[in-house]
Amino acid sequence: MTTQEWKFTTKDIAAKPDLFLSGHRACAGCAPATVLRLIMKATRGPTIVTESTGCMEVVSSIYPYTSWAVPWLHTAFETAASNASGIEAALKIMKKKGRIKQEHVDVIAFAGDGGTYDIGIQALSGAVERGHDFLFVLYDNEAYMNTGIQRSGGTPHGAATTTSPAGSVIPGKLEYKKPIADIMVAHDMPYVATASPYYWKDLLTKVRKGLEVEGPAFLHVFAPCPRGWRSNPAKSIEYSKLAVETCVFPVWEAVSDEYQLSTPSKLVALAPQKKKPVADYLQGQGRFRHMFKPQGKKLLEEVQRITDERWQRLLMKCEMAQKP
Amino acid sequence: MTSQEKTWKEIAPAGVCSKSSSEFLTGDWKTYMPVRDLEKCTRCLLCVLFCPDGAIRWYPEKGDIAFDYSFCKGCGICANQCPTNAITMKLAQE
Amino acid sequence: MQSVAKQKMMALAGDEAVAYAAKQSDVDVVAAYPITPQTIIVEKFSEYVANGEVETEFVCVESEHSAMAASLSASVTGARAFTATASAGLALMHEMLFVTSGCRAPVVMAVANRALSAPINIHGDHSDSMAQRDSGWIQLYAENAQEAYDSIIQAFRIAENLDVLLPVMVGLDGFTLSHTLENVETLLDEGVKEFIGTRQFPKVLTHEGKTVPFRLDPANPMTVGPLALQNYYFEFKRQQEEAMENALAVIQQVNSEYAKISGRSYGNGLLEAYRLEDAEVVAICLGSTAGTMKTVVDALRQDGVKAGLLRLRTFRPLPVEEIQSALAGVKAVAVMDRCLSFGGNGGPVFHEVRHLLYEAASRPYVVNYIYGLGGRDTSPTELRSIYENLQRIIQTQRVEKPIQYLGLRD
């Protein structure tokens, strides 16, 4: 797929000037902000970014201030992928007609849960089916955070949100997290990957792969939100590590629907005794607090069960399933 | 925002932003601030990468990092992620 | 003074004429979704693309909402964007129409005017575009396929004018115009190219402190479509209104420039006065019905009635002064609406005409006729009855029913 593997050192990346600038209004400890900052470090040349309505869009573009050192367009909530389609089509034809001086311009679409799982899924699916050359990045903080922590298709089972509160009758969200990355793999698209910011090298490598691929690429990035998860802002990156270690959010990539586990998850697969129980991850997050009460025990077991089941299914896809 | 706001005739159409957010200092958000023990710090640069606000910078010519407290919101990610516990969060002075 | 250019007569249905005009206009991106009765536009254009007759990226989007998002984004990137829709498709784009005009993207769109559901109806009326009259789009309504062709070409000039920079929608009545074959005089390709020219971009101040062309260009990064809070949003909207006001002059200017090369003019571009000079009874209408109305007016004139017709070609921006002066001295006016504004005491055009006559030195009787909804055909006899009613009103000095439904089974 890629002819030349991108080699980089920590110092290289750290020295690269930020394209997602300081002075944005994200909360203290916002992992999506870290994710965006890191992703913009992996750009390879002229880049245009488009974003759907959501936390990262709002915090980075409060008129007259902008945190974007690249051309950036926001139109609406559903439209990260439809914007990208229009931008990519324009670049293509303008290049053909000799109106663009750059050799190549990368197009990146950023969207949160809402703009990807739910209101944005139609445009995303359409753009991918049409084969536009762009990278779509989902920064997943597992709820509609910008509007006040309402549940999304990406909210995990049992999580408390403002539209799925943990009440005395219903203990949080009853539905399960939509397997969005698998849905994208089923589109038979060139490149799909999941990543977690603690494993920043893996994240950057995947961003670059997504940009280099010809055609659409989808990157699902885990991005803890201390505000919505009611967790310690200092631990946002730590949670992104725990999510992988507990297999709540495994990291993998699929090149034209051939799955491959990425190193951080591969280590867990090869040494299953090292796999941490989900409680290690859930504990400390206020949105799961009710699971640690006596009446929440069944819910906690269910979360462990579904995590294990999905993990096994993933291993099978990666042909790494252990024989029972 | 303290600058005088412009009239409709003076601003660019379509909301084209006229200022970089690097002019908007978020440092006064913090309650705690990171303090680094220079001996423990190995210059691994993880804090530089993980900071959501880009408030820790690597200066290759100096061979060292520096904290930009005018943007640091005091989240504590740097302290939490530092592999050698070189960073501690202290109550920020006014 | 330029002489009328050599032209080619072609037999085209309204949709085909629109597609042909778009083809000649060096459009860069077409992002569209099919909906009756616009389908022929996208199908025809697809043929051009498949045969290599146009240098255009044709994006078969998965819905009209995405059609407008993609068109607007392509336009902001610097491409000339054209799209088309109707009815429910236009309604689905509603949110994005406001975004497009707010982003000052000069997108041109043909609307094959069709009724809105429910119940579902695929035939012509103006409910679709009238429902978008607040969206900040310029609205032109064509009387025939010829005008639809001419208006699409003019629309690019109007939209891209640096004093305007607003998207333009051109309405052509569903089936009556979209699907009916007419003789259409078409300009030659070079003529259109010369008339429209290449797209110009205004210069804007970016966050880098540079004043550069307004488009997404990595060489000159800018942020478009930000969050504007209570302290700024209002100012952006005022800018759009100013652009609308500027459009009044630009539409007229483009109309007269186009007349020089084509020999065709649509009134002054804003409205068309038909036998209005000494008219006492006047009807106002938009779109294809005007064609039939003109024959009705001619027959009435034969019978000695001082009848006249005011056809509104431009509905947005509303040509206030022009309508006021056109109606000066008229005794009774019937405003025809091919659309209802439910619970609103009459149709949209009725509201606006009455409103702009409020300060007139002498106000005529103004009544409303709702007609033609869902493609309901209106006969010349029925149309003539409008004028007969106006005469009766003048005679009796009384309006019995200010709002009437023409052709409704009651």
Number of domains of chain A: 1
**Strand order of the main beta sheet of chain A, please?**
3-1-4-5-7-6-8-9
The CATH topology of the domain at 36-94 in chain B is Alpha-Beta Plaits
H/E element sequence of chain A: HHEHEEHEHHEHEHEHHEEHHH
Topology of this structure?
The complex is a heterotrimer of chains A (324), B (94) and C (410).
Chain A: H1 10-15, H2 31-41, E1 47-51, H3 55-60, E2 65-66, E3 72-74, H4 80-96, E4 106-111, H5 113-118, H6 121-130, E5 135-140, H7 180-185, E6 191-195, H8 200-212, E7 217-222, H9 226-229, H10 236-245, E8 252-255, E9 258-261, H11 263-270, H12 278-282, H13 297-317
Parallel strand pairs in A: 1-3, 1-4, 4-5, 5-7, 6-7
Antiparallel strand pairs in A: 6-8, 8-9
Chain B: E1 19-20, E2 32-36, H1 46-50, E3 56-59, E4 64-67, H2 77-81, E5 87-91
Chain C: E1 7-13, H1 14-24, E2 29-32, H2 39-50, E3 57-60, H3 64-77, E4 81-85, H4 87-92, H5 94-102, E5 108-113, H6 127-130, E6 138-141, H7 145-160, E7 168-173, E8 181-187, H8 189-196, E9 203-205, E10 211-213, E11 223-224, H9 233-262, E12 271-274, E13 281-285, H10 289-302, E14 307-312, E15 314-316, H11 320-326, E16 332-337, H12 348-356, E17 365-371, H13 380-396, E18 403-406
Features of the shown structure:
heterotrimer, A: 324 residues, alpha/beta, Rossmann fold, eight-stranded mixed sheet, C: 410 residues, 2 domains, six-stranded mixed sheet, 18 strands, 38% helix
What does this protein structure show overall?
- The complex is a heterotrimer of chains A (324), B (94) and C (410).
- The relative contact order of chain A is 0.12.
- Chain A has 324 residues and is α/β, with parallel strands linked by helices.
- In chain A, strand 8 and strand 9 form a beta hairpin.
- Chain A contains 13 helices and nine strands.
- Chain A has an eight-stranded mixed beta sheet, with helices on both faces.
- Chain A has a single domain, classed as Rossmann fold (3-Layer(aba) Sandwich), CATH 3.40.50.970.
- With 94 residues, chain B is α+β, with helices and mostly antiparallel strands.
- Chain B has a domain of 59 residues: Alpha-Beta Plaits.
- Helix content of chain B is 11%, strand content 21%.
- Chain B has two helices and five strands.
- In chain B, a hairpin with a 4-residue loop joins strand 3 and strand 4.
- The longest helix of chain B has 5 residues.
- Chain C has 410 residues and is of the alpha/beta class.
- Chain C has two domains: 231 residues, Thiamin diphosphate (ThDP)-binding fold, Pyr/PP domains (Rossmann fold, 3-Layer(aba) Sandwich), CATH 3.40.50; 136 residues, Rossmann fold (3-Layer(aba) Sandwich).
- Helix content of chain C is 38%, strand content 21%.
- Chain C has a seven-stranded mixed beta sheet, sandwiched between helices.
- In chain C, helix 1 crosses helix 2, helix 3 packs parallel to helix 5 and helix 10 packs across helix 13.
